[in-house]
Amino acid sequence: LIVLFELKGHNPSLNEMALLDVFRSLSVYKTIVFYSIFMFLTVFIRTLIRDISNINTAYALGRKTWPIIVGIRRAKNSALLLSSITFTYLLFHFKKDFYQSSVFSYYAFLGIVFPFAYFLYKLYLSKKIKDFQSLSHLIEGIAFLGMLSILFLKH
Question: DSSP states of 102-143 as a string?
Fold first, then answer.
């Protein structure tokens, strides 16, 4: 807001250019916040999935991981809930890109949203330790593809 008050001047073209710079910088900050939240959530989900897949080792070493404390079923449900929240977050963020025909919109849906939907489906069906090991690799790939999507952004 301080920047907007500072824009009061006598030259409207300078004010318009400065205002445009402010909105561009806000867009960059929103993008940084989005990717930070996305990476935090995917790394958290991956850690939870990895803890489920390594439950036998953690139990043998006497570690108190979330799957040991609450059990595999509840830990899986926690991962499913957190993954559903992340998926909803992705859909709300990319909804504006859905109607655009750009490289970024295609990449966002084919490289991030659809693989995440597949991840949710496989997580829902997972029962064995091996299932969770493959899910760990899948969420790592989704996080990597998500970070690569920065290359397709236009600012």
Answer: SHHHHHIIIIIIHHHHHHHHHHHH--SHHHHHHHHHHHHHHH
Check residue 112 and give its pLDDT: 93
Please check whether residue 71 is in contact with residue 51, taking contact to mean a CB–CB distance below 8 angstroms: no
What pTM value is reported for the model? 0.79
Alpha helices in the chain (DSSP H): 2-6, 12-53, 55-60, 66-70, 72-98, 103-107, 114-125, 129-148
Query: pLDDT tens, 77-134?
Result: 999 999 999 999 999 888 776 666 678 888 888 999 999 999 999 999 999 999 999 9
Euclidean distance between CA atoms 47 and 64, whole angstroms: 14
R_g (Cα) of the chain, nearest Å? 21
- Asked if residue 86 lies in contact with residue 39, where contact means CB atoms within 8 angstroms, the answer is no
- Of the candidates 73, 84, 74, the one whose C-alpha atom is nearest the C-alpha of residue 119 is 84
Residue 155: closest CA among 34, 41, 15 = 34
Residue type, 65: T
